[in-house]
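Quick one, T. Sequence first:
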Amino acid sequence: MTALTHAPATAGPAPVGGRVLLAPITITPSKPLTPSHLKGLLWTDVMYRATRGVADVTFRYSPTTYHPTEQTLAFWEYLDRTRGDTDYDDLTEERIGELYIGFRAEARPAPAEALEPYAVAAERGWVHPAGARVLRLWAGHYAALGMHDPGLTRHQPPGLDLDGMIERLGALGMCLDQRGTGGPVYLDATRYGLPLRQIVTAAGRPNYLACALRELLPLAADFDEVVLVYDTELDPDYQQLERVLGALGPAVRRVPVGRVPIDGRIRSARHGGWQDHHAGALLTEALAAYPPPVVRLGMRLYFIALLGPGRQQSFRADLLRQSMSRAERLLAAAGAGDPETLPARLGRHRRDHRYVDPYRLTSGLLGRRGPAPAADLLSAVYL
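Structure tokens:
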């Protein structure tokens, strides 16, 4: 099984209390939430809600920060160029996802000058109606799942603009800026044995890593621990991010979470394959058969404990239904619990870090020999 975190472990106990910044990868609002997305979101939600019991946690998740990426701006330009003044308010996320598949299949990339008006508008807080529609639908899924909403539909700009981020990176001695000669900008962590990583194109367009630096560089120094939750396939970029943020003082923990195969295959959402397996469809089916508390707990048991941190197991609807039945039994058997002991019970599921490990905590609920989980823990973390 894939290790939960690549951060080096020590034999010592986890630090007590402190300030934790939880910064999961942000999903582009252009398609339905796939099983892989659901796994990462539920993993992060349990980590956040459990860690609140043992530390001061800030959950930073801002779609605003990542709208300036070329992927997002080009999709918006594609929609306006091919569909004109479409009213997106009645479109389903599946239909918008189909439009996104069409965009990714288009061979002709948008020129930089076509994206510039979108970039300026995005920096000012504008969101394309298609993206705004998807974010509203996602907020409904968050509510149905009982997940903390960190501000999906709010304007939450990063603390640094692009120039400020590059300047800050340069002050750390970790930037190769070739804009003066018409070139790109690189993150330079070669002192750590990592390759140069382009973060801004010669045309001035930032990638996902540049946007993450705009958001996290001004925040990291105020925390004892920064926790990065992300897709395992992005591990090279997150090794770079770990080095940059670590230079500011906090302990940086990388928590890679593997994608969920569908019928044995891992496919990017840009290619589809999420029909009948996305969050809306799964929730509709589950809520037709079970009450909301059972669905919330059952989803977490399946996507965290049964699937685990790796990517070996394909999505199985029968195991998801079994998780609902198991959740029903756990809720029926739950005792009251003592709220004063909840921090200690949560704290057992840490290692040398401040955050609570969602896999250790959730898989512990499935132990057949231990006592039934207490209602206060279920309520605080899972419902």
